[in-house]
Each structure stands twice: as structure tokens, then as C-alpha cells.
């Protein structure tokens, strides 16, 4: 009997302890650290708005909408001639949310309309961190051909879910990122609805990247489509004589490969079809130095007020 009781106590003590987070002051709102990237957006009234009546918590949520041909550009870059379109918010000034040699936690929730369609083999990006003058993102949350993935530039990434399973309800994202040259643990961890779905041990920042850039980091989110002509070419209903596009930009920094698609100017042609309209909502967006500061589920349990 004593042996049985002792064995039971040992087994109980060996069970993993539940995650416990001390009450902390909520993280800072990402909304206040960002602005709409007007330089590259199409001038539409529907592209971005703070709306009521559809939120994860609180009164308001951010609504992004992207339609066929919603591209823009400036003297430095044009999405319209680079097989892209977007409506994004961009961290400005840079280095407000995260910096090289720092650790940052991000938390937010997003909602895809029930009829949301991805544009595979083209890409949809819902969130990313970039380094100024380094082309490839350090990490980006991407959707293509029903796969939701977290990518790390040219190093590949993790499949974190299916787009078809993410539609029609709020999804809670939690991300830890270490931007030091020699992280002592994982450089990146991602949770989806409280479950860990991705991790990375290699550094996300290297000395070569710092030498080739201005070293400033910035966060972006919204709706960003790249290589849209791939979807148009796959789904076209009439013959299009387009000039194939070989994206040489990818060879400048961050990648040794080029990316090919059907056209660099996809909106100059009539494919007989148009890209599906996409709508995504964002809410409860925070950044901070700990999980407890940004995890919506922890904050709700602690009785914290919504961020908006």
C-alpha cells in the first residue's frame, strides 16, 4: 500500500505544470505605432477602416479589404509593375516595436470572412517583420493553396493550419521573436489559439544582413498579395499574351533564387477573371516584453480592458 501511494505521488509530481502567468500591465497597442502605407496603396475608401459591431473584444476592430487591381507605387517601387497589390499598416518610425538585439512578444486576433479565398499559387501575407534595405522578411505569416504558413525568408518555415479551417471565426495569434545575433534559446515561437505551432532555433538576424542594411526593423500587417498573375494565369478564361515575369528583386538580398510568374503587370491584361475580393479583420493587437502582456486569453482571464 505504501509503495502504491509513493508511486502515485511520484507520478503526480512528474506531470508538467500548467502555464501560470503573473498579472502584468498590458502591452502597448500596435495600432498607435503604425500607419497606413499610403505610398503603395490604391486610393480606395473601402481599403481600411476602424469598424464597430464585429470585434474580438471591445467596441472596434480594424477592417482591411483588397480588390482586383488595388495596387499603387512611388518613385522607388510600384506594386502595379511588380505583380503585387496591398493594403497594409506599417510601423513608423521604425524600431518602435522591436529592435536588433532585443526580444519582443506580439499578440493579435484576426478574422477571415467565411467566403475568404486564397489566391494560390500567389501569396497572401497577413503579418511580417522586415529590416530596412533587406528585401526578404525576417518572418511573415503567409497563406497559399489552403496552407497557412510562417516563413523565414529563404529558410522555409512551418505549416500552422489550413485556410479553410481558419475562416469564419476569430483566431488568436501569439509570437515571440528574438532578434539577437546569438539567441540563447529559440529565436522564434508561434502559438495559434493557445497551441504552439511553430518554432525556430537559427538566428533571424545575421552580421551579413546588418552589413547590407540600415539595421532598422519594422512590423507590417493587413492584406498583401504577391505574384497575383500566377492565380490569374491558372484561372483565366481567355487567352492572354503576357510577358513572363522573372522577379530579380529576390536576388538582391535575402535569397539566392528568383521567382517566376506570368506577368509583372497583371492588371494591364484582361484574363477573363478577377482576383477574389478579400476581407480580414484585426483586433486586440499588442506588443510587449512578456507573454502575459500580449496574450489575449491571459489578459481576459485577468480582467484586462480591451485595447480598443
Could you describe the 3D structure shown?
This protein has 308 residues and is mainly β. 13% of the residues lie in helices and 36% in strands. It is built from six helices and 17 strands. The strands form three sheets. Strands 1, 3, 4, 6, 11, 12, 13 and 17 form an eight-stranded antiparallel sheet that branches. Strand 7 and strand 8 (134-144) form a beta hairpin. It is globular, with a radius of gyration of 21 Å. The chain starts with a helix and ends in a 7-residue tail after the last helix. Mean pLDDT is 92; it is low at 1-18.
Task: Give a brief description.
It contains six helices and 17 strands. The chain has helices at 2-13, 163-166, 207-211, 228-235, 291-294, 296-301, and strands at 28-29, 34-36, 48-52, 60-66, 84-91, 103-112, 123-131, 134-144, 147-151, 157-162, 171-178, 188-192, 195-200, 217-226, 245-247, 259-261, 278-288.
Please describe the structure with a list of short key phrases separated by commas or semicolons.
308 residues, mainly beta, 8-stranded antiparallel sheet, 7-stranded antiparallel sheet, globular, disordered N terminus
Mind sketching the topology for me?
Blueprint: H1 2-13, E1 28-29, E2 34-36, E3 48-52, E4 60-66, E5 84-91, E6 103-112, E7 123-131, E8 134-144, E9 147-151, E10 157-162, H2 163-166, E11 171-178, E12 188-192, E13 195-200, H3 207-211, E14 217-226, H4 228-235, E15 245-247, E16 259-261, E17 278-288, H5 291-294, H6 296-301
Antiparallel strand pairs: 1-17, 2-5, 3-4, 4-17, 5-14, 6-11, 6-17, 7-8, 7-14, 8-9, 9-10, 11-12, 12-13, 15-16
Amino acid at each position: 500500500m505504501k509503495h502504491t501511494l509513493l508511486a502515485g505521488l511520484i507520478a503526480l509530481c512528474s506531470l508538467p505544470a500548467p502555464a501560470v502567468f503573473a498579472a502584468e500591465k498590458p502591452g502597448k497597442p500596435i495600432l498607435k505605432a503604425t500607419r497606413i502605407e499610403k505610398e503603395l496603396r490604391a486610393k480606395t475608401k473601402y481599403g481600411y477602416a476602424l469598424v464597430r459591431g464585429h470585434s474580438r473584444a471591445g467596441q472596434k476592430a480594424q477592417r482591411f479589404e483588397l480588390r482586383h487591381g488595388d495596387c499603387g507605387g512611388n518613385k522607388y517601387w510600384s506594386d502595379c509593375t511588380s505583380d503585387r497589390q496591398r493594403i497594409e499598416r506599417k510601423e513608423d518610425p521604425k524600431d518602435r516595436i522591436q529592435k536588433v538585439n532585443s526580444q519582443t512578444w506580439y499578440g493579435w486576433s484576426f478574422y477571415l470572412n467565411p467566403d475568404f479565398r486564397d489566391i494560390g499559387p500567389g501569396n497572401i501575407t497577413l503579418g511580417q517583420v522586415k529590416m530596412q534595405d533587406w528585401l526578404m522578411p525576417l518572418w511573415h505569416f503567409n497563406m497559399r493553396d489552403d496552407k497557412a504558413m510562417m516563413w523565414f525568408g529563404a529558410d522555409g518555415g512551418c505549416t500552422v493550419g489550413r485556410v479553410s479551417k481558419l475562416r469564419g471565426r476569430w483566431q488568436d495569434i501569439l509570437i515571440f521573436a528574438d532578434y539577437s545575433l546569438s539567441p540563447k534559446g529559440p529565436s522564434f515561437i508561434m502559438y495559434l489559439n493557445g497551441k504552439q505551432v511553430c518554432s525556430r532555433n537559427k538566428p533571424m538576424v545575421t552580421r551579413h544582413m546588418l552589413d547590407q542594411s540600415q539595421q532598422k526593423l519594422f512590423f507590417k500587417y493587413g492584406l498583401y498579395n504577391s505574384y497575383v498573375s500566377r492565380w490569374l494565369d491558372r484561372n483565366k478564361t481567355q487567352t492572354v499574351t503576357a510577358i513572363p515575369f522573372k522577379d530579380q528583386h529576390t536576388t538582391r538580398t535575402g535569397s539566392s533564387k528568383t521567382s517566376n510568374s506570368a506577368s509583372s503587370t497583371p492588371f494591364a491584361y484582361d484574363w477573363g477573371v478577377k482576383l477574389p475580393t478579400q476581407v480580414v479583420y484585426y483586433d486586440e493587437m499588442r506588443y510587449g516584453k512578456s507573454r502575459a502582456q500580449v496574450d489575449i486569453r491571459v489578459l481576459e482571464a485577468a480582467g484586462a480592458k480591451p485595447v480598443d
